[in-house]
Amino acid sequence: MTGATRARRHPLGSTAGLAVLVVFTLFGGLVALCMGPSGVGIGDVFKTLTGGSVEPHVETIVWTVRVPRVVLGLLVGAALSVAGLLIQALLQNDLAEPYLIGVGPGALLGVTVAALVAGAGSMPAAGVRAGFAFVFALGVAVIVFGFAQRTREAVITSVLLAGIAIGSFVSAGATAMLHVAVPDWADVIRWLLGDLELSELSDALLLGGVLVLVGGVAFVRARDLDVLTLGEEAAWLSGVAVRPTLWLLGTGACLLAAAAVALTGLVGFVGLVVPHLARRLVGPRHRVALPAAALLGGGLLVLADGLARTLHPPAGLPLGVVTAVLGAPVLLALVLRR
């Protein structure tokens, strides 16, 4: 039985928990708008957002730099968190997440192939990157599950082990290919560690559409997710079509992770840690945990990005470095409390 299905106390009810998370996400977005090495603070941001008189460069920084990053960060954090929650439920393992089972590395390989196809060291449009990323992410996931089915161990454990092995191999190949496709090694590092500057605000429409589609399907099938966390036998007895549900929601998780990677590169720990925190706040029912994970993931990611932009000015730090530094201790604390 996974951590998602154990009876555990949570300090907030579903309604109160979601209300708190809405406030937290809005607060995180506003704080992130005020963070950065440019010296544009809360007063300048408030005047800009309310139509007050500010210097032209302040307006440019707020509307063309910070607002797009915050919007994209909210969507990426939500997408990775929902993908992680779905994968943990489907695999009945609260240590599963998109990158650990090879979906993230597969998406990175797809982006790399898209860059090679584009040629001249350039990246194609966001939709093309996302399409390639999804195909390769789904392909790697199928390979991982195929290897897992051939072992004598418990399938869930085998999926994680196969995902780590195949994901590491795919990541190595993608890194080498990306280095060839993108001559500037600094850009390669940004993709491997994640960076919200890799995309524009218009690209967020793609991720937003994917998030609404997959999140909506998952919300409708929330009861099936609740039953699946109890095991396949319990799901069959409850009338859940297990295999179609696994394929449908598993494909949705791959699509979410692929779209996020296509826009921002690899941003670790979000899909692993946030579902744990969301379930602790609002409980294990997926009809509540899904929106909770989306809100919490978005809020935490924009705060992490604001911190990444503030540290080590003027270039800042890669976003993936900050999420790893913040996420690893949280994950360790959750494991120790189990």
Q: Keywords for this structure?
A:
74% helix, ABC transporter involved in vitamin B12 uptake, BtuC, mainly alpha
Q: How does the SSE layout of this entry go?
A:
Elements: H1 14-33, H2 42-49, H3 56-91, H4 103-118, H5 126-149, H6 155-181, H7 185-193, H8 204-220, H9 222-228, H10 232-237, H11 242-264, H12 270-282, H13 286-310, H14 319-337
Helix pairs in contact: 1-3, 1-13, 2-3, 3-8, 3-11, 3-12, 3-13, 4-5, 4-6, 4-11, 5-6, 5-11, 8-11, 8-13, 12-13, 12-14, 13-14
End-to-end separation: 13 Å
Integer count of domains: 1
Quick one: overall form?
globular
Classified in CATH, the superfamily is ABC transporter involved in vitamin B12 uptake, BtuC
CATH C-level class: Mainly Alpha
Helix content: over 70%
- Radius of gyration, rounded? 20 Å
Count of helical stretches:
14
Judged by helices, strands and strand pairing, the structural class is: mainly alpha
CATH topology call: ABC transporter involved in vitamin B12 uptake, BtuC
Major sheet description: none
User: Which regions contain 5 or more consecutive residues with pLDDT less than 50?
Assistant: 1-8
Explained architecture:
The protein is mainly alpha-helical and 338 residues long. It has a single domain (14-337), classed as ABC transporter involved in vitamin B12 uptake, BtuC, CATH 1.10.3470.10. It has helices at 14-33, 42-49, 56-91, 103-118, 126-149, 155-181, 185-193, 204-220, 222-228, 232-237, 242-264, 270-282, 286-310, 319-337. Helix 3 runs parallel beside helix 8 (204-220) and helix 12 packs across helix 14. The protein is globular. The two termini are 13 Å apart. Residues 1-8 have low confidence and may be disordered.
